[in-house]
Design brief:
heterotrimer; A alpha+beta (445); B mainly alpha (292); C mainly alpha (302); A: 445 residues; alpha+beta; D-Maltodextrin-Binding Protein, domain 2; C: 302 residues; mainly alpha; MetI-like fold; two-stranded antiparallel ribbon
Chain lengths: 445, 292, 302
């Protein structure tokens, strides 16, 4: 009897809690105000700084972790040391889901990083703060940025991010393996590349590839070859799948697979362990390799490999020497979400990170190539292996900015799916390109 | 009547049975060990990798045993990341979660099994139904609820829901509860026990293995939860171990030796917990005449 | 009358934790996600009502059906595999042999290994030329397949990986086996029933409520199969921040993975929500059918 009474009391109390919490929970509606494009949270708490220091807080979220993350932390510490007004609170956030959910709910950071490929997708949804006004007001010098890298940060006529590193691919080659086959110089043209690749490939008795000639590892080199051929899936911000150069490039890459067997190439691709001490290129089992500016640092500092390698520009087609040096530039960028609570502070930090001072620290720490022309000096080159080549290469007149479009992710998914079938010869190159055009028709805004 | 040979025949038979028993036991051991071996192979590989130099890990001729035991990895992981800090954070979350889950899920499971009330028919299917919706689509609204409650940036979103039962554990415990004979409950009721008494004195003691399982699973689930802590925690010193492990996965390569060492250390508390919990798996939960 | 009221109050009181939790933490998100499924919602701007458009688009998409097929494959093959294997192992480990606690711990260990480590581990094990699996297969004369590259064998590879992680299933079955009264076994043994007979006539019925649980949970979980595929296809690109792909020719594009892509890669939360509710209907239907059959094979209250 007593127990029932106690239970009744308990349930009433709990019911009261239930009701009050329901009222609290129930007041939130589906996100978004109907009038404007950008997300505006219903309440913006004051920027409270550290009560002790009285400085305003800037929340920085970055995708790097561990040792790489520490580079960002030390840049933040440098900023704190030289700023009277602001203090940065950096946080390593290894998964994009958190960034998206937080920004969506109005609790995002003040400044964060991402690749330039996300500029248009994010900006078109109103979650990125345009920087034009900040640049104008503070008189920030944007002429020092490499044009190609800076272009990637624009969308629809406005600047949405600043580039802190330029990423593109060059041709790495194993001098010893080339010499064994009688080649003393790396290829200049794509035709020479194929010739050397075929000549230097070594197969086992069962047909499996022992030494891979063509740069088909870690992945296929199609997009790089495509660019070198004058083509591209985008021409600026227009979809460009029907460019005849794309078809030429696709057929060219398939040539090698026809020669040595699609399944053998596939087997090599899946068995190889990329970016480890057992990487085929590090072990002298791969003659040519397309890779980025970070590879020399990895080979020389991290894994201390001992192969005799060289780096050169991606070859150009024999008939079009005017495209020498044509390479696709992607940038690592920092941007300010439109829901940032401390935009002024974020701008201060952003301009610091992307200034020469910040970029130098960033590049040396991560082995990447900065986007400031004024940093292309011997002092920098001596600290980052391979940068004496990659630096100027990323800024050469034929460097093409890899622009982003709002449906960029969907577009590349479609492209990759159809290309996969073409490269494994399950559909013809012509069909693949036709399908890409067909499927991406509806993506155009 | 008594056959002189009968005695030897009987003892021979006894001997045969004895040997057969030993053989069977040997076979059982053998099979278990064989499977164990296969099961534990990846784990052993993980353990051995944690003792290798970065360079040795993927040598062309894969060495199974490390050329020499490089224990530095185990030291480095505590230097590179605030491992112990993460451990204590994760412990706080996991242990609170276990407490909450054991209390709440057993309660709800009881109401879904041995109490005949109007809600049983309606709530049980609803409970199961909530498990059928992928978390990706409820993530954002749920985040907003916690934001309204000002719980983001704290441990509350990770701990609190455990005090309200989880469909998975409720379902599990309910299936165990229903196997308890009604006759037992009836006789207790006749003796004057109320439903609460029955809960504490019959349901819980008889389902110790199941409740222990729930405790282990809850602990483990929270111990290795990655998305939850990442989503709701906004300060690095509040982070948990799962997030901490990401420190060894860099942009272009993985720091295998340290990742494996960190993973080995990651599993130790759970193994200890599991060992201790084994007690509750001991059979012979006897109640005269009915069970055991 | 009074008794019934008491029962109702008790029932309600004991169920209160879940009821409160549901109202506070589940109801709103669930209803909201249903609302989203009828909208176009990129998570940053207001959702735009589009009626059944998402559903119509999905049913016309090849990838939708492919992802459903992949998931059904895992569910239909994986569920019985995992349950049978888990039960088999639990049975083995139910004996009173010395060192049983150690054996049980070993079998449970794979589940303890953190997901990031175990997926990287398995990518290595499944490596076509240097991995453990193919080396073992070669020594016993079986073909060494391209587990990660050939779209025909990528799912079987994941099934194998799944078997390795059945520690949890085994544990639950172990707990259930403990609950079957010894007296029943002893009586049967005296009656002359052999081990197999005892298993089918005593063990199985005795643990049938738990088998039901495992079956339903396995179906529900397999239909939402995500984490392994996400980590494997993500990690296969040598670390870094790559959006989860679907593996070779989308052979590993599972329903939940495609849902994730729609939500977080393509910013189509509306479409993803529609996917979630389609899945819900399918799973609810299957579960309902399983529950309906339980009268035939599940024995409660001996």
């Amino acid at each position: 009897m007593k127990k029932a009474k106690v239970l009744k009391l308990l349930s009433t109390i709990l019911a009261v809690i239930l009701v009050t919490s329901f009222v609290g929970c129930g007041s939130s509606e589906p996100k978004g105000n109907s009038d404007n494009n950008a997300v505006t949270p219903s309440e913006w708490p004051e920027t409270t700084g550290n009560p002790g220091s009285g400085k305003e807080k800037i929340v920085l979220w970055y995708l790097w972790t561990g040792a790489e993350g520490e580079v960002v932390e030390s840049i933040a510490a440098d900023f704190n040391a030289q700023s009277d007004k602001y203090v940065v609170e950096p946080l390593s956030v290894p998964d994009l889901q958190k960034v998206i959910v937080a920004i969506s709910s109005g609790e995002g950071p003040d400044i964060t990083d991402d690749f330039s490929s996300n500029v248009a997708p994010y900006a078109s949804k109103g979650i990125v703060e345009p920087l034009d006004d900040y640049i104008a007001k503070s008189g920030y010098d944007i002429t020092d940025f490499s044009e190609a890298a800076f272009e990637t940060c624009k969308w629809d006529g406005k600047i949405y991010a600043l580039p802190v590193a330029a990423n593109n691919d060059a041709l790495f080659y194993n001098k010893t393996l080339l010499a064994e086959a009688g080649f003393s110089e790396p290829p200049e043209t794509l035709e020479e590349l194929m010739e050397m690749a075929v000549a230097t490939t070594k197969t086992n008795s069962d047909g499996t590839i022992d030494v891979l000639g063509f740069p088909e590892f870690p992945g296929n080199p199609l997009n790089i070859i495509l660019t070198a051929w004058g083509g591209g899936w985008l021409d600026g911000t227009e979809m460009n799948a029907d460019d005849p150069a794309n078809l030429e490039a696709l057929k060219y890459v398939i040539e090698y697979r026809k020669e040595f067997g699609v399944d053998k190439v596939a087997a090599f691709q899946t068995s190889g362990k990329a970016h480890d001490p057992a990487d085929p290129f590090f072990k002298g089992k791969q003659v040519f390799r397309f890779s980025g500016a970070w590879l020399p640092t990895m080979m020389e500092k991290t894994f201390k490999t001992d192969i005799d390698y060289g780096v050169c520009e991606v070859p150009y087609p024999k008939d079009h020497p005017e495209w020498k040096g044509r390479t696709l530039i992607n940038a690592s960028t920092f941007y300010i979400p439109s829901t940032a609570k401390n935009k002024d502070g974020a701008w201060e930090l952003l301009s610091y990170i992307c200034s020469s001072e910040g970029q130098k620290k960033f590049s040396v720490g991560l082995g990447s190539i900065p986007t400031q022309k004024s940093l292309m000096t011997d002092e920098l080159f001596s600290q980052i292996p391979g940068s004496d080549f990659f630096g100027p290469y990323s800024m050469n007149e034929n460097a093409v900015p890899n622009m982003s479009i709002p449906q960029g992710t969907e577009y590349s998914t479609i492209v990759n799916e159809e290309l996969e079938l073409a490269l494994s010869m399950k559909q013809s190159p012509e069909d693949a390109i036709a399908k890409i055009i067909e499927r991406s028709k509806d993506l155009a805004q | 009547m008594s056959n002189p040979n009968a005695g030897t025949a009987v003892s021979n038979l006894r001997k045969k049975r004895h040997y057969r028993k030993i053989f069977r036991r040997f076979l059982a051991h053998g099979v278990v060990i064989l499977f164990c071996g296969v099961f534990v192979l990846p784990f052993i590989w993980m353990l051995l990798t944690s003792f290798k130099f970065q360079e040795e890990i993927f040598a062309t001729v894969t060495t199974f045993f490390p050329a020499k035991f490089y224990t530095r990895n185990y030291v480095d992981i505590f230097i590179k990341i605030p491992y112990m800090r993460y451990v204590s954070n994760t412990l706080v979350i996991s242990l609170s979660a276990v407490l909450g889950q054991v209390i709440s899920s057993t309660m709800v499971a009881y109401s879904m099994s041995k109490i005949e009330w109007f809600g049983k028919k309606y709530f049980f299917p609803l409970i199961i139904a909530t498990m059928m919706i992928p978390y990706q689509v409820t993530m954002i609204p749920l985040y907003m609820i916690f934001k309204k409650l000002h719980f983001t940036g704290t441990y509350w979103p990770l701990i609190l829901p455990n005090f309200f039962g989880s469909a998975y554990y409720i379902f599990l415990l309910r299936q165990f509860f229903v196997t308890i004979p009604n006759s037992l409950i009836e006789s207790a009721t006749l003796d004057g026990a109320g439903r609460t008494r029955i809960f504490f004195q019959i349901m819980i003691p008889l389902c110790k293995p199941a409740i222990t399982t729930v405790a282990i699973f809850t602990f483990m689930g929270n111990w290795s939860d990655f998305m939850g802590p990442l989503l709701y925690l906004n300060k690095a010193d509040m982070y948990t171990i799962s997030i901490g492990l990401q420190a060894f996965v860099q942009t272009h390569f993985v720091e295998w030796g340290m990742l494996m060492a960190a993973s080995v250390v990651f599993t130790i508390p759970i193994i200890i917990l599991f060992f201790f919990a084994q007690r509750y798996f001991i059979e012979g939960i006897t109640i005269t005449g009915i069970k055991g | 009358m009074k008794e019934k009221a008491k029962q109702n109050i008790s029932g309600f009181a004991f169920a209160l934790p879940w009821i409160i939790g549901f109202l506070c933490f589940s109801a709103y998100p669930i209803i909201t996600s249903m609302y989203y499924s009828f909208t176009e919602f990129n998570m940053f701007q207001s959702p735009e009502f589009v009626g059944l458009s998402n559903y119509r688009t999905l049913f016309g998409e090849e990838k939708f059906w492919k992802s459903l097929y992949n998931t059904l494959y895992m569910t239909v093959l994986g569920t019985p595999l995992n349950l049978i294997f888990g039960l088999f192992m639990a049975n083995l480990l139910n004996k009173k042999l010395k060192g049983m606690s150690i054996y049980r711990t070993i079998f449970y260990m794979p589940t303890i290994v953190p997901a990031v480590a175990s997926s990287l581990l398995w990518i290595w094990i499944l490596n076509p030329t240097q991995g453990l699996l193919n080396n073992m297969l070669k020594t016993i004369g079986l073909p060494a397949l391209n587990w990660l590259g050939d779209p025909n064998v990528t799912k079987p590879a994941l099934l194998l990986m799944g078997l390795w992680g059945t520690g949890g299933i085994m544990l639950i079955f172990l707990a259930a086996l403990q609950d079957v009264p010894r007296s029943l076994y002893e009586a049967a043994e005296i009656d002359g029933a052999n081990a197999v007979r005892r298993f089918f006539s005593i063990t199985l019925p005795g643990i049938s409520p738990v088998i039901l649980f495992q079956l339903i949970m396995s179906v529900i979980n397999n239909f939402q199969y995500f984490t392994q595929a996400y980590l494997m296809t993500n990690a296969n690109s040598s670390g870094g921040f790559n959006p989860a792909s679907g593996g070779p020719e989308n052979s590993l594009l599972f329903y939940a993975l495609y849902l994730y892509q729609n939500a977080f890669s393509f910013f189509k939360m509306g479409k993803a929500s529609a996917m979630a509710w389609i899945l819900f209907l399918i799973v609810a239907a299957v579960t309902f059918i399983i529950f309906k059959t339980q009268r035939k094979w599940v024995s409660y209250d001996e």
